[in-house]
Amino acid sequence: MAQFGLENDISNTLKLDVPITNAPIARWQRKASASNASAIGLSPGKSTNISLNASKTPGKTPAKTPGKWRTTPSKKMGEDRFIPIRNDKQMEVASFLLSKANRPKEDVSAATSDQKELSLLLNGCNLEEARILQFSGKPTVNPDGQHNAMKSLYSHTVTPMSNKKTRYIYSTVDKILDAPAVQNDFYLNLLDWNSRNVVAVALQNSVYLWDATRGDVVHLMTMENDADYVSSLSWTKDGSYLAVGTSDCAVQLWDVEREKCLRQVTSHSARVCSLSWNSHILSSGSRSGQIHHHDVRVAEHHIFTLRGHSQEVCGLQWSPDGHYLASGGNDNLVCIWPGVSQAPRADVDQSLRTLSLHKGAVKALAWCPWQPGILASGGGTTDCHIRIWNVNSGSCLSSLDTQSQVSALAFAPNYKELLSAHGFSHHNLVIWKYPTMTKIAELNGHEERVLNIAMSPDNSTVASLGADETIRIWKCFEVDPKKRPKNKTPRSAFTQSIR
């Protein structure tokens, strides 16, 4: 029994360490030998001395599942299959990588240690060369910074330039009109453009009308006393009537078509330098700091008085919906007043809100036409700021230092932008993108400060009145004809001709 056990151990040792030479040839070896013999022109029955170890490719290749083997199909005549030349170490590494890919995720640490150990045993074998059908996750880098034209052609990524929306702005003036003897006074409002495409301008003690459609000029009125002057202008919504404020504390109402003064309203004790219409209600602000509401339909026109400013009211604007009246004064305040229907028919001494962040006179006021309750205000030389307000909450949404006196503001609905006019020391107009307040363009041309601006009925053109005694027409908000909305209702001849 001892001898049989010893022989059995020796037999097992031989099976593990030494190949058995006198054992019968296995079936797969005979098949491989027959294939090699037919490839070199020998008959399968004849014996050869060809060694099976001469082939670099083994007869069996490892499958995806460890422990299972699949037979390499025999090579038929006429086939050409590429087999890479690999050394023994590369084959062992490839087998290791394939078995590692099928391991559970919890054995990743063990597989990593096995990989390190195998790499050390293989004395620096390149693992990348041993990978089989392995795709790299990162694209290769083009040498010397070469540009891949096909990648750019078939790329779906939108480039910044194609995504950027731009438009052309006419930064040069379209027309220049003479305005001799214009009052160089920051606090006055001497320019307005009505819905019938007619511009009204006050020159000293006279008022002139310029028809922007035909180019005709009409002398509307001249004050009787040469010492007096026109201090403010404001059109009604339909453009039929013009309110004229004067330095002798009066407000005149003119029928433009008949060129006739319908009535003269007197209630102030100082010059009237700001006017604003809300339907049949005319609001007027004077140097005394008071604001009067007038109902022009009745003989007793004066309804009540608003008292909130201690100095001259140089800015006055009703909101488009008529819910609020904004007033700006030389006392650096912006006051928000309720609509006439909401206020009692008595004098009001307290405004709804008082906005007091400006450090200079506030003449420039503009309501946003597409955002109710949003007001823009601009300060004078000691302030130079444009501020955007939410009048419902009284909060300042944004503030911008223009480094120049702000004399007028106007919103441009065609492109949702804000236009500002400046006095000392820039003497120009600036277009800002709303609400980011980034500067888009500057309109230069005036040699002295800009006093007032007015928008055309279609909001495409701006008229600016300067202390250099000129009125300059800027077509800076014209809409592309292809992008203009088609209106179902017909327009008047005045509106159609300005385009």
Helix content: 10-25%
The count of β-strands is: 30
Sheet with the most strands, sense and barrel status? 4 strands, antiparallel
Compute the number of helices.
Answer: 8
Classify the fold: give the CATH topology of the domain at 175-480 and 492-497: Methylamine Dehydrogenase, Chain H
Q: Which outline best applies?
A: elongated
Can you give the mean pLDDT? 80
Q: What's the architecture of the domain at 175-480 and 492-497, going by CATH?
A: 7 Propeller
How large a portion of the residues is in β-strands, by DSSP E? Answer: 25-35%
C-alpha end-to-end distance: 119 Å
Q: What is the gyration radius calculated from CA atoms? A: 45 Å
| Structural class by sheet pairing and helices | alpha+beta
Biggest β-sheet: strands ordered side by side in the sheet? 3-30-29-28
CATH superfamily of the domain at 175-480 and 492-497: YVTN repeat-like/Quinoprotein amine dehydrogenase
In the CATH scheme, the class of the domain at 175-480 and 492-497 would be: Mainly Beta
